[in-house]
Sequence to fold (470 residues):
Amino acid sequence: MSLPTWFNLKINAPHYVYKPTSKLIPASVPSKLNQSYTQHFECPNSLIPPADQNVAAIVFGDGSNSRLYPLTKRRSESALPIAGNYRLIDAVVSNCINSNIRKIYALTQFNSASLNTHLSRAYSSARIGNEALVEVIAAYQSPEGKGWFQGTADAIRRCLWVLEEYPILEFLLLPGYHLYKMDFQELLEAHWTNRADITVAVLSRTRDNDTEFGTFQLNSENQVIAFKDNPDKRVQNSEKSNDISHDKFASMDIYVVNKEAMIKLLTEYHPLANDFRREVVPGAISLGMNVYAHKFSGYWDDMRSIEAYYRANIESIKNTNKAYCSLYDKDSPLYTLPRHLPPTQITDAVITDSVIGDGCFLNRCKIRGTVVGMRTRVGDGAIIEDSVIMGSDTYQSGRAEEDIHIPIGIGEGSRIRKAIIDKNVRIGKNVKILNKENIQECNNEANGYIITGGIVVILKGAIIPNGSII
Fold:
């Protein structure tokens, strides 16, 4: 879905006044929106931005310690395709848009070329007044800092001169590679009600893998007492089984930070801190600042592994509580770059329980339980099951294909099961990607693929010759 037209319009909409002792208070609410405007643009009332906004979101687009390699060999985590037509960062930006947050800074650094391009193309035309909705701040050198960003805290500190230009009261810090749907206004309301310096988002439930971002210990009023980074799973599970860890909640690495508190923490109290989670947040707790937690009970996945990425794509097909359901939520739509592709062409194909992106050519094939990305070409007799096909960045003309031994796409008679096929891959005829021996780990990058967690990953741009068996 492309961005709604209201981003280029001035309208009389409700705005909110921030008072330290109160919740969000509507300052002026029109009795009735213009009916013709609503019908013409088909824009839900929740998407109409307030005339005044006190929050700026800071989205971190990437990290150098990704476990999503080789999918991140030439792109950042946030730029990974998801659910056929989208990228991971679209979910985070859409959460901001749907929560009426109109100022978003994207701080990018590692393998950020495709991410920067996507953000500038997808959101550059969306403007509030004279200001862009999303402003990309790529890593840069200056007289004061001549190296790369050393971490999230260092990146914010070095960009404060830009961030302070916008008249806001709070910063909302967000990783750009998580998949979830959250109304940030509820998080902000909790932050303001508690008069907090920092509010952290935590999961209200526990899972075996909720240790990536540490755990917060809370009191009965949800005030943070202590933070433990990357706790040992055996200790956590033991505590859970003994029923003595109900006050510990897994961090989502999402924070609301008061602007003045942020400046003091980064420039006065911790001027050399590099990581916000590991250094600044524990420092704020030790200083006695008001640090509170907001519990979140919806779908959330941090997408920090190949298995998590594969699972999230496959679950996007299913309409269950475990799935990311924003694809079909008219009240919280998922935005992305409008590409103006033709509709997918299907010729005598059998497709079940799948998501098909735009502009594909599916010829007499069978597809089941699969996410098929944009511009994917599947030849006659091919069978694809339980896989993620990212698609192609471009179309090949007929004349060019005559000179290419194996064109981009999936060749005739090929079979693929439980695989991730990266973009622009050329799979020949009668290829079998089935992992029949159930190999769990294998690095064969030289031949264009790896296997991790039993999932076969075909590298971007790889060529798999006719008759190959993987």
Summary: The longest strand covers residues 248-258. DSSP finds ten helices and 35 strands in the chain.
